[in-house]
Amino acid sequence: MNRRDVLKGAVAGAFATGGGWPASAATAPSAAHTVERWGVFEVRLDGPAGGNPFLDVDLHAEFRLGNRAVRVRGFCDGEGVYRIRCMPDELGDWSYRTSSNAPQLDGRTGSFQCVAPAEDNHGPVMVRDTWHFCHADGTPYHPFGTTCYAWVHQTQDLQQQTLATLKDTGFNKIRMCIFPKSYAYNRNEPPFYPFPRDASGKNDFSRFNPEFFRHIEGRIQDLGKLGIEADLILFHPYDRWGYATMPAEVNDRYLRYVVARFAAFRNVWWSLANEYDFMHALSTPDWLRFGRIVSEEDAAHHLRSIHYGSTMYDYTEPWVTHASLQTTAFDKALEWRAAWRKPVIYDECQYEGNIPQRWGNLSGDEMARRFWRCIVAGCYATHGETYLNPEEVLWWSKGGVLHGSSPKPIAFLRRIVEEIAPRGLTGEDSNYLSAVSAKGDMLWFLDEHQPAEYKFPLPAGQSFRAEVIDPMAMTVTRLPDACSGPTQLKLPGKPRQAVLFRKLS
Predict the structure, then answer these.
(1) At 133, phi and psi to the nearest 5?
(2) Is the pLDDT score of 481 beyond 80?
(3) What is the distance, to the nearest Å, from the Cα of residue 105 to the centroid of all Cα atoms in its chain?
(4) Could you point out which of 270, 347, 354, 426 has its C-alpha 20 to 30 Å from the C-alpha of 260?
């Protein structure tokens, strides 16, 4: 068995249970299959192996449920194998019919039954209540993310170590690049390349390397089993292989291929770029075209955004579902949220670590503090870690293990938010930082202030029970007496404290 067969077998078996990967249709068009809602149904076909199938062969399928039709692009997986993937989002009896300019692939038909999802399958994440998120079945989702840009381009041992680390954290989203990355503390060659390369390193942009993309989708599936959303970065400027300066037709073909391969996985998000404004070969019309391509090609309608370096993108663009920010301007959160009327994620608000670069040497307490600043504004944040070590395995780039102190208090905050505000918090203007939940619980974060006592302006006619929270020590002190209206409380008199008022029925 060769390397390709080993990898193919590993990927094909990764989601054989849990409705994730995939229920495959045999080449016989009459075969019937069952797949759970928001699982992956795959049609596998044998077709042309000669010539250049990545350029010459056009393949689609129309999936039908009653009068509803969903058109999906297929893709070549190499060696004459073609696949079409669908994520059925409604229960019932589905059918499909293929269309192709290759006679072997044209007019193939089949059917499958979409059944109820497994207990841990809540569907893809979508926007809810303007500024927040939920899964397709209505289960609340609050993004508490981390950053591992190039973890999928490391050794297998290091990738498995990263997955083991993620299993024991509270992170439920990860920002990661599809293309390999060339940057400080990340100079290694990747195990696979997205396009064939000759001995001199010249890319053949007319073809894809299916082994590269099979590897990525295997990692997406691994994350899905951990309940982690894969925020896939489609382009970035940190490149020495030629991927940041590809011709327009190659960029477009790449986007269509990636969407065709990955969009059926329910834990996928699309980020058009990391620091798009540093990619000087591209301009605003290019990004608008990319946004349109991803929106049109993705039948599952996954979340879409773009990240910037210094020039903020126009997040009012219709293709954008949420804002992905690189800034520490937390005082602007309420203003931006109101202006864009979309969820706001501070995806890069600097990192915990000790590298020389100013953006990568926060203390653990400061990293956790920034999450609190975002949450009480009704927004969200993403973690990163950049601690020096002799092997130059920094979490933010290569993954591995976490060395910092912020993940635990961030997970502590996530538990609080999920308990009191399943539909998210709404930030409010106040003397200190405050937010309210849909059921009327009120959360204050005193940030750097350290009052020994403070009169909280609670609404009259409603009763609350107060809890004093130390976010960094991860302690909760419940006060015994109910309170109503303006309420004076004695406080620890140290910075970075929070007070939660739980509304009593």
Answers:
(1) -135, 160
(2) yes
(3) 33
(4) 347
User: Do the domains spanning 13-115 and 430-503 agree at the CATH topology level?
Assistant: yes
The predicted model gives 231-254 an average pLDDT of 98
Give the count of beta carbons closer than 10 Å to the beta carbon of residue 28: 8
- How confident is the model over 302-323, as pLDDT tens digits? 999 999 999 999 999 999 999 9
| HEC profile of 189-225 | CCCCCCCCECCCCCECCCCCCHHHHHHHHHHHHHHHH
Domain 13-115 architecture: Sandwich (2.60)
How much is the pLDDT for 32?
52
Determine the residue type at 505.
S
Q: Classify burial at 53, counting beta carbons within 10 Å of its beta carbon; exposed 0-12, middle 13-18, buried 19 or more.
A: buried
Residues 382 and 145 sit within 8 Å (Cβ to Cβ): yes
pLDDT of the residue at 505: 82
Cβ atoms of 342 and 321 within 8 Å: the answer is: yes
What are the b/e assignments for 370-381, b being 16+ CB within 10 Å?
bbbbbbbbbbbb
Average pLDDT, stretch 286-294? 98
Q: Specify burial of residue 290 (Cβ count, 10 A radius: 0-12, 13-18, 19+).
A: buried
Task: Provide the pLDDT for residue 158.
Answer: 98
Amino acid at 205: F
Residue where the block lists tokens 């390193």: 201
Which residues, in sequence order, are bridge partners of residue 352? 362, 385
Place of tokens 């680390």: 165
User: Which residues does 374 contact at the CB level (< 8 Å), separation at least 6?
Assistant: 330, 333, 344, 346, 349, 380, 381
Q: How far is CA 179 from CA 146, 172, 218, 233, 360, in A?
A: 18, 22, 15, 8, 22
**In 263-406, where does DSSP find H-type helix?**
284-297, 333-340, 364-375, 395-398
CATH superfamily ID and name for 128-425: Glycosidases (3.20.20.80)
What global pTM score does this model have? 0.94
Say yes or no to pLDDT of 25 above 90: no
The domain limits of the chain are 13-115, 128-425, 430-503
pLDDT (0 to 100) of residue 30? 37
Measured distance between the N- and C-terminal CA atoms of the chain, rounded to whole angstroms: 65
The sign of the dihedral angle between the CA atoms of 407, 413, 417, 419 is positive
Q: May I ask the CATH architecture of the domain 430-503?
A: Sandwich (2.60)
Based on C-alpha coordinates, what's the Rg of the chain? 24
CA distance 260 to 254: 10
| pLDDT score, position 28 | 37
